[in-house]
Amino acid sequence: MGDRLLITSAKRQTTRQQFRCILTTDAYQIIFVDTPGLHQPKNKLGEFMLRESLNSVANSDIVLYILDAANPRDELPVDLTKGKPVILVLNKADLLLPNRVEELKEGFQAQGRFSRVIAISAFNRTNLDAVIQAIVEYLPEGDLLYPPDQLMDCDYRLLAAELIREQALLHLEEEVPHGIAVEIVAFSESDDEAVIQANIIVERESHKGIVIGRKGTKLKTIGTGARLEIQNLMDKKVHLKLWVKVRKNWRKDPAQLKGLGYR
Q1: pLDDT at 257
Q2: For FRET with 189, which of 85, 217, 230, 231 sits at 20 to 30 Å CA-CA?
Q3: Which pTM value belongs to this model?
């Protein structure tokens, strides 16, 4: 995990490419908005992603700034958060010696930019409760924005597309996934099953062959992994059919970005 912004919000927001996970207890409700993170945009898609991050900061109450403890590149602009509480989360702390973790925490805390500095291991689920408790300390008072039993603010079509893309990221070479998008072309469900058809979009003909793999093995691996993840999410049988389509320079084309849901 590189540097990311994970926003905790007391406001409803609706944008296509962001997930909102909702944690509700008897004492509080936290809305987590997973943003694309901070980066220097190189195309129209990058510009869209950066705008999403900046808009999320502007419309939220607390910022979690997540850094890889093994490579803690701090690229958060000082004026971006505009006085909002910023909790710095150092992930992958399990990869470092304890004294190095303490050095990092003390160094960042001494900057005076962060309300709290917490070291965690998402892989081992270490110290996650401390992050929640830190968030609760800064939550504004107010009524619930979502029903207590609602866990997410997005639909299954979007979730299915992201789970398919996640499997592509896991199984493809490093240079390919940045030019990959997923388009859901058909989605239907009953009480017992769901039928999903999707296109994996790539920018180059050479990438199409990589995604498909020899005799279709790579695409089958991606599809099997995605289907199992979607089944687990929807708690029903899922039939998933994938195709690979080439759309040259889709990340630079505003019309294609809009068609893929990046508005």
Answers
A1: 73
A2: 217
A3: 0.62
